[in-house]
């Protein structure tokens, strides 16, 4: 049988409030039972409220912890993004720095430092057993001072850029061209016989001699002198280069617009 507690409570309350039952022997016991019951209800109620407020507190705490965790996570993501961007910029700057330390800013060809590195590599890694060896060619533009004097330094710069490109277009399939300094260039041909090197440099010399650069309705033409040096077993980088330099000097003294092989 299902007990209706609310009805039962009302019934007991009525009995306890009826004066004529006050002296009834069961009245005292019933009143005590009623008070114990009320006390237990109150305790239950306190426990339930305590448990509710404990759960509320835990939920608030969990919420605040999770909010703090999310905030830290967002900060961490922001720092990671900044650090990634910083590292990308740093890498870019390093690449730029490396590029500017090795590339001539005017002609955009390898500069003297870079071409020396390449020559040092070519000397170290040459194979003396091969029939064709390492050849260098030193190039100097003839009477370049006159170009500057006649047309101005800016036109002189344009001539250096154009000739650098023209010569590089011919040479880059076979070796490397770099700006040695001023109006001088250096060519490295890692695997060339003397004849092949002469033929190639003759093509370069001829290309420059027939080239006319037109600037402001003026035609600027130039020529180059070339000193060639082929690597010998007893050579160092210095002796190889100084033989090319001596050959260039001879080419200049022979009237320019020609090439000489160093002996
Ligand atoms: N426009 C310009 N001129 C330069 C640059 N570097 C060097 N020069 C010029 O190149 C000229 C070299 O002159 P010289 O050494 O007398 O040689 P040259 O007039 O070419 O005569 P030879 O070499 O004897 O045929 C100088 O006038 C330098 O100012 C440059 O980057 N730009």
TrEMBL record:
CDD domains for the chain:
GGDEF
Give the Enzyme Commission number. 2.7.7.65
* The protein's required cofactors: Mg(2+)
Superkingdom classification of source: Bacteria
What is this protein's record name? diguanylate cyclase
Q: Which UniProt keywords apply?
A: Coiled coil
Where the record annotates domain GGDEF, the positions are 132-263
The record's section on SUPFAM superfamilies has: Nucleotide cyclase
Looking at the Swiss-Prot or TrEMBL record, what is one Pfam family this protein matches? GGDEF
Enzyme class (EC, first level) = transferase
Name the coiled-coil region(s).
76-103
Q: Which gene encodes it?
A: pleD_1
UniProt-listed PROSITE patterns: GGDEF
Per the UniProt entry, what species is this protein from, by scientific name?
Marinomonas spartinae
The reaction(s) catalysed by this protein are:
2 GTP = 3',3'-c-di-GMP + 2 diphosphate
Which GO MF terms does the UniProt record name?
diguanylate cyclase activity
């Amino acid at each position: 049988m299902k007990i209706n507690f609310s009805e039962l409570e009302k019934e007991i309350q009525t009995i306890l409030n009826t004066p004529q039952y006050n002296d009834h022997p069961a009245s005292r016991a019933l009143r005590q039972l009623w008070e114990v019951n009320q006390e237990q209800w109150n305790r239950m109620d306190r426990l339930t409220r305590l448990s509710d407020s404990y759960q509320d507190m835990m939920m608030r705490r969990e919420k605040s912890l999770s909010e703090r965790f999310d905030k830290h996570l967002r900060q961490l993501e922001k720092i990671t993004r900044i650090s990634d961007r910083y590292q990308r910029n740093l890498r870019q700057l390093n690449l730029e720095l490396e590029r500017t330390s090795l590339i001539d800013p005017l002609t955009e060809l390898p500069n003297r430092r870079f071409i020396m590195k390449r020559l040092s590599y070519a000397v170290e890694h040459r194979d003396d057993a091969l029939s064709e060896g390492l050849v260098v060619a030193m190039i100097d533009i003839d009477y370049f001072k006159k170009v500057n004097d006649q047309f101005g330094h800016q036109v002189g710069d344009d001539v250096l850029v154009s000739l650098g490109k023209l010569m590089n277009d011919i040479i880059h399939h076979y070796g490397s061209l770099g700006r040695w300094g001023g109006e001088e260039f250096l060519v490295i041909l890692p695997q060339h016989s003397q004849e092949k090197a002469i033929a190639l440099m003759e093509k370069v010399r001829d290309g420059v001699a027939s080239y006319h650069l037109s600037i402001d309705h003026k035609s600027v033409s130039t020529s180059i002198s070339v000193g060639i040096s082929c690597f010998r077993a007893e050579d160092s980088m210095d002796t190889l280069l100084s033989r090319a330099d001596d050959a260039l000097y001879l080419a200049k003294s022979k009237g320019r617009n020609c090439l000489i092989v160093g002996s």
